[in-house]
DNA sequence: AATGCAAATGCAAGGCAGTTGCAAGTAGTG
DNA sequence: CACTACTTGCAACTGCCTTGCATTTGCATT
């Protein structure tokens, strides 16, 4: 009785990749698409469990693995804890600012080092295929506190 | 009966940080100092178990945590697997090239984006305190194979 | 619409990196 | 040397993630 259309929003995409279109896969893709930021498997699991019908955590992981192997999504690792993050592969290059105060993640759209990588490619004996840049610091809100507190690190 | 001198090589340093100088702590610092690259807790554990007297894995982890909290070492996360890496904090800024072919890690000494961070600091409402850059690709040795095989990504 | 089959899923158990509680050992102090 | 607080080993445990297996489901074919 719900959104049959909606549910198969990604059918073509999935079939094109040679995998079946299922309720869970569609839901996961949808969540990732809606989210501004990378999500953990657990976040997806909880949202899905509440929102749609129940889903098993292992299904979430397997689905994410499948998507990652098809390059539909990108898996990365958060720096501080060991949790993996998943986001849609927009095939656009993107970096984030990670606030060490409140752990907020802020996207920056243009890659500040794109051309630098080009230059570097020519200087070193190494075939650069990609890079990951994480920038740490304090966001607008945390700045204030930090200025009154900070000392070490 | 061994290297009493050697063993207390880091005594001063440790005491200065307010922690006791022990056989294990000295040994771990020594290994990290000798190593050109970040090591996992497990690598340290195995080396130490064979080399000096036996050590418990939990001691390795606790020691590494202690060192990290004193900023003697730096903990980071390898991108592909979930293992944490530890290296001496040289207080020098350093980046690595990670070969996705053979997983070799190559150091690059100068930070290619230092001044870029400076520029960025002024452009955005975010107090940058640090950054991490990982560059992926194929090293000299893996390049050859890659050229004959590669296609995607 | 019914059938068949491979792929997808749920469930429960397992694996692995890292953590914790506690008793025993040890460094540093007087 | 004795004392105390910090360290360590040991074993059990946690949390994230994976796997084996029986069941279900998507989808192509009849």
Automatic annotation (TrEMBL), chains A, B:
**Residues binding Fe cation:** 93, 131
As to how many cofactors bind and how, the note says: Binds 1 Mn(2+) or Fe(2+) ion per subunit. Binds 1 zinc ion per subunit.
- The name under which this protein is listed is Fur family transcriptional regulator, ferric uptake regulator
Name of one Pfam family that matches: FUR
Q: Which UniProt keywords apply?
A: DNA-binding, Iron, Metal-binding, Repressor, Transcription, Transcription regulation, Zinc
Q: Which SUPFAM superfamilies match?
A: Winged helix' DNA-binding domain (SSF46785)
Gene Ontology molecular function, alphabetical: DNA-binding transcription factor activity; transcription cis-regulatory region binding; zinc ion binding
Q: Would I find Transport among this entry's keywords?
A: no
A biological-process GO annotation: negative regulation of DNA-templated transcription
UniProt lists the family membership as follows: Belongs to the Fur family.
What are the names of the required cofactors? Mn(2+); Fe(2+); Zn(2+)
In which residues is Zn(2+) bound? 99, 102, 139, 142
């Amino acid at each position: 009785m719900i959104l049959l259309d909606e549910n198969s929003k990604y059918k073509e995409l999935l079939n094109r990749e040679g995998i079946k279109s299922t309720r869970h896969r569609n839901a996961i893709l949808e969540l990732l698409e809606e989210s501004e930021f990378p999500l953990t498997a657990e976040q997806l699991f909880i949202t899905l469990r509440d929102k749609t019908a129940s889903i098993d955590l292992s299904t979430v992981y397997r689905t994410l693995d499948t998507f990652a192997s098809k390059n539909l999504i990108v898996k990365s690792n958060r720096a501080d804890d060991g949790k993996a993050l998943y986001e849609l592969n927009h095939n656009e290059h993107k970096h984030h600012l990670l606030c060490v105060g409140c752990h907020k993640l802020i996207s920056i759209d243009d890659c500040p080092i794109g051309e630098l990588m080009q230059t570097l490619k020519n200087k070193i004996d190494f075939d650069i295929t990609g890079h990951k840049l994480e920038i740490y610091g304090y966001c607008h809100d945390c700045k204030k506190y930090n200025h009154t507190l900070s000392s070490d690190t």
